[in-house]
């Protein structure tokens, strides 16, 4: 029979480290929170190889008194709690006294610290939980902690770490979120010698949003500030036209602490009810300021989860704060088509954005959006551009007006079908392919569906997903075959937030294999010089930029990245529902579709062809 025994300190610390230190980003979080609790106003984080080889956090905080330095590496030793009563009114980020000993147990750590009232600093080295060195040292005020060879003595833990680029992205996300909670602190993140992220430390959350997400996001943020019964909801949320495919850019803070909360995510999204497309999520930085006794932060050693005493009440406060902020803005400008001229400078003063928040930009006409692709066809076809302003929503309309506009719309749609029908499609090329032989082309219905007639059925073909399937298979088969690219008339300048820029940089090789021409020039900036020839001349500047952002969102989710990339490219470049297409283009699409491996569903699984059988039609007319 095995006997019960007390675990040694080294083994106990390794077990504790399993809860506190999950990956390099966990180390960064714990060390930065210690710096903030020490009153630091400048914090620099330096990492190498995704934090596996090196993590260094330097600050100008209060430092640790030399007599207390050895205690900092003892479990459950802390300066932040004095009694059990303090546990239920915690105002500091750390309080458990587990971070330093847990990190030191699975790494080689060096600590240098000095307080303002001591003549010299202290140096301590701890390897795998064992004290190696403790001596005085000349140092500036504050603390510097260097962590090397993370998980060097726990190879099983090391094996589960991701690639360097992925771990670097986790660290960037962690630092970005903490900076949102503490805009008064100047943060700098350096990875492998390159500055990834830097904030001004001027106390303004909007300037941190600018540093984290870029100019376009900062311009589209709406301030939130609502206080009721000593509970304040404050921060920024994005206008409805700006949304993401994941919740990654939803940041929640409670009394300055970054937390993860499904309840707060639901409250934020409920505030946007009916304003966002399905399965799309807003960008938000929302902080809750309330009595510390009303929230329990001692739920998990990582301190990322909290428990509220009045969860339902908090949900309502957040939801109504978001709704109130959205309703206070003129959201109509959110849907205006914006000119995407390349910026003159990458870095701009965030104060300009505050003025723009109060005055929405005027709507622009469709003529502002011109294809960027250079080709002889466009030169030959160039002519006067007719401005078509965006139609504003009707507030009130009489029944007669509605009927008149409806009839005009139906007549316009009839003319679209007539135009295609009068081009005599039956004399075209479709009959030469076995898949389409025996079918009579009848036209294009509401600029969305291709209509073909058969003696036994009416065929409806969705033009968008048919074209999407064609492009998908062409792109798939052309991967790494250098099928050629088409230069843009003007290079497209992309300015991405650091997290997205890092993801795009990691996937440039894949895009090059797909015949994109994209160059990185630092600071989150990229130049798109060419796109795959297969994508044709349909992509405009806005479409290319939206496609790349969507690709980044897919890459962050993992899975089959190549397939997700090709699927997204095909979907973005395909003709859309509502596009008027010549019969020659329709023939090209249908003939190409017939040559695909699967002409019946798009890459997302939606049906391309719907057949309305003659028996069903006759039943509808009472003939059966």
Radius of gyration from the alpha-carbon trace, in angstroms: 30 Å
Termini separation: 82 Å
Report the major sheet.
Answer: 8 strands, mixed
Catalogue the unreliable spans: 332-350, 360-400, 410-423
> Given the C-alpha coordinates, what overall shape results?
elongated
Please give the number of β-strands. Answer: 24
CATH homologous superfamily of the largest domain - what is it? MutL, C-terminal domain, dimerisation subdomain
CATH architecture of the largest domain: 2-Layer Sandwich
In CATH, what is the class of the largest domain? Alpha Beta
Total helices: the number is 19
Task: Output mean pLDDT.
Answer: 79
Q: DSSP strand (E) fraction?
A: 15-25%
Number of domains: 3
The helix content is: 25-40%
What is the SS-derived class?
alpha+beta
Q: At the third CATH level, what is the topology name of the largest domain?
A: formyl-coa transferase, domain 3
Strand order of the largest sheet: 5-4-3-6-2-1-7-8
Please write out the topology.
Elements lengths: L8 H12 L3 H14 L4 E7 L5 E6 L39 H7 L2 E7 L6 E7 L2 E8 L4 E7 L6 H5 L4 H18 L4 E6 L2 E5 L6 H9 L1 H5 L1 E8 L2 E8 L4 E2 L5 E5 L2 E3 L2 H10 L9 E2 L1 E6 L5 E2 L10 E2 L2 H17 L23 H8 L17 H6 L17 H24 L17 E6 L3 E5 L3 E6 H16 L6 E11 L2 H9 L1 H6 L3 E4 L4 E8 L8 H17 L3 H13 L9 H12 L14 E5 H7 L4
Helix pairs in contact: 1-3, 2-5, 5-6, 5-14, 8-9, 13-17, 13-18, 16-17
Description:
This protein is an alpha+beta fold. The protein folds into three domains: 9-196, Heat Shock Protein 90; 214-330, Ribosomal Protein S5, domain 2; 399-624, 2-Layer Sandwich (formyl-coa transferase, domain 3). Helix content is 34%, strand content 22%. The chain has 19 helices and 24 strands. It has an eight-stranded mixed sheet with strand order 5-4-3-6-2-1-7-8. Strands 9-10-15-12-13 form a five-stranded mixed sheet. A four-stranded antiparallel sheet has the order 18-19-20-24. Mean pLDDT is 79; it is low at 332-350, 360-400 and 410-423.
